[in-house]
């Protein structure tokens, strides 16, 4: 990949083994992290926060035990925050099912899946650690078994030492 300044939507774009990760910052907070396909070029950070976020994404991609420390924009419903807090507590190398998370917060698996799909901060809130009871489940509101997003989820799980989702 080469450095590009032609992506005004993102404050930085970091190369990743599966493609790239777009970083949006706004008003002193990370607004969004986005999984991008390989067709996106890297983009140098445009401000100090996007540089900090890019460095942390790169650290995670190199070291799966790295823990993020970024100011996140205040987005999401109270229910989504409940789900995201449970997901954030799942240790690296482990997964929970949508049903497991649902039981913890006294909800339904489908609602947990919808909250996972609405996650603005993947990697920071590791929704890839939530799977279906019978397999990998969906990811980022996508469930095409051979699609880009489930490929990202498989890579992230392998990166974190989780077996059985190839």
Percentage beta strand: 15-25%
Largest sheet: 3 strands, antiparallel
CATH superfamily annotation of the largest domain: Winged helix-like DNA-binding domain superfamily/Winged helix DNA-binding domain
Radius of gyration: 15 Å
The low-pLDDT segments are 1-5
Order of helices and strands: EEEHHEHHEH
The CATH architecture assignment of the largest domain turns out to be Orthogonal Bundle
- State the total count of DSSP E strands: 5
The side-by-side strand order for the widest beta sheet comes to 1-2-3
| CATH class descriptor name of the largest domain | Mainly Alpha
Question: Could you write a compact summary of the structure shown?
Answer:
The protein has helices at residues 48-62, 78-88, 98-105, 109-117, 148-159; strands at residues 12-16, 19-26, 29-36, 96-97, 130-131. With 166 residues, it is of the alpha+beta class. Strand 1 (12-16) and strand 2 (19-26) form a beta hairpin.
Walkthrough of the structure:
The chain has a 3-stranded antiparallel β-sheet, with helices on one face. It has helices at residues 48-62, 78-88, 98-105, 109-117, 148-159; strands spanning 12-16, 19-26, 29-36, 96-97, 130-131. It is built from 5 helices and 5 strands, in the order βββααβααβα. The relative contact order is 0.14. It has 166 residues and is an alpha+beta fold. The longest helix is centred in the N-terminal third of the chain and has 15 residues, at 48-62.
Characteristics:
33% helix, 166 residues, 5 helices, 5 strands, Double Stranded RNA Binding Domain, globular, alpha+beta, 2 domains, three-stranded antiparallel β-sheet
